[in-house]
Write a structure and sequence with these properties.
2 domains; alpha+beta; binds zinc ion; single chain; three-stranded antiparallel beta sheet; 203 residues; two-stranded antiparallel ribbon; 7 helices
């Protein structure tokens, strides 16, 4: 902290095998000796190269940036993604698609909401299509883990993506859940998200 040197922070996201998400560069911006911990803030690479011009040191600029929500999100995002994808063994919860490039770590309750925490119990690994369908209420997930497709979509006739990718999944249970119970979606969060789906469907 005194030398204002950039560090690489390895955050554990899984055990057996041990997996870490590297976040860099980060700076130690504060010491909390009574709690025996440090406050760590990420610095985006762009700002690092640009160097602050207003007389701030890198550390001072980092502290200013850390105060913005944007920076906190940038730190949480890769850790949330790694944790969720690992828990779902790189598979879409809805269709079991197993290509990491096509998967997202979706929030059950959006992170703009107070309860939208970046925790695996508020997450699900979803492929791009199912993530977008979930976020736009074309698809809901019942608290008992059954997929629901918006009624008007079930009436629609179209190509294979609509048919196999959405309509045929209606009423089917999720295909992939974390094997550890403690990592499965929290019931209250699913309840709330399903309520939002029903409200969206009725509208
Ligand atoms: Zn999917």
């Amino acid at each position: 902290m005194e030398l204002e040197l950039p560090l690489i922070w390895f955050i554990g996201v899984g055990m057996k095998p041990a997996l870490f998400q590297a976040v860099c560069p980060v700076y130690i911006i504060e010491e909390e000796p009574e709690l025996q911990r440090f406050v760590i803030a990420p610095m985006d690479e762009e700002a690092f190269v640009r160097r602050p011009t207003d007389g701030d040191t890198v550390l001072q600029a980092t502290i200013k940036r850390y105060m913005s929500r944007e920076t906190k999100v940038r730190l949480h995002q890769p850790v949330f993604r790694s944790t969720v994808l690992r828990a779902y063994e790189d598979r879409c919860a809805v269709c079991n698609l197993g290509h990491r490039e096509l998967l997202d770590a979706a929030h059950i309750i959006p992170d703009s909401h107070d309860l939208g925490i970046a925790s695996v119990v508020n997450g699900m690994a979803l492929c791009k299509i199912h993530h977008a369908a979930f976020d736009s209420f074309l698809m809901g997930i019942r608290p008992d883990h059954v997929v629901q497709i918006r009624p008007d979509l079930l009436e629609e006739v179209d190509g294979p993506m609509l048919q196999h990718g959405l309509k045929e999944l209606h009423g089917k249970p999720l295909m992939k859940l974390p094997s550890a119970r403690g990592e499965r979606p929290k019931r209250e969060l699913l309840d709330m998200a399903y309520g939002r789906f029903l409200a969206g469907t009725a509208a």
